Amino acid sequence: MRVDFHTHIIPENFSELTQRFGGEKWPTLERTCACGANIMIAGKVFREVTDQVWDAEKRIKDMEREGVDIQVLSPIPVTFSYWAPAEQAEILARVQNDFIADLVSQYPTKFIGLGAVPLQNVEVAIREMDRCKHELGLSGIEIGTNVNGVNLDDPQFIEFFEMAEKWEVPLFIHPWETLGKERMPRHNLMYTVGMPSETALAGASLILGGIMEKFPGLKICLAHGGGALPYLLPRLDQGWKVWPHLRLLDKPPSHYAKQFYYDSLVNEPVNLNYLLQNFGHERIIMGSDYPFLLREVPPGKVIDDTVGLSKEQTEAMLGKNALRFLNIPVKVGS
Question: What does pTM read for this prediction?
Answer without folding.
Answer: 0.96
